[in-house]
Amino acid sequence: MKAPKWITIILLVLLAGCSTAGNLGIVIRSSADPISILKAANKFEELGFVEGKACRHFVLALIPWGNSDFQTAVDDALVQNGGDALVNVTTESSLYGFIPIYNVYSFTCTRVKGTAIKFIKK
User: Which alpha helices (DSSP H) does 1-122 contain, by range?
Assistant: First the structure.
């Protein structure tokens, strides 16, 4: 059964979204001191691939909850295996709106993917 064209057009108007992506070399946990770590030239071990996500939701564009910042997504990824930093990081930010004309409900999410590493203390 084929949907009429006007239903498809209405659905496209009611649902909207956009996304951006980028790459980074190294991202260190927010509680670490990156300058001292880099100056000391610490050795590290790879812990494997991890992903993290952080989202913020809005109802009627007035009632927000959650936290979609980059560092929250990084911390979420590093918690999975106790890493200190991410290398070869890919990041993506997305924004989705449902009935965007009236801002009934929308959410934005930040995702990070990369290889977790743990610095070896001397």
Answer: 5-14, 34-40, 70-79
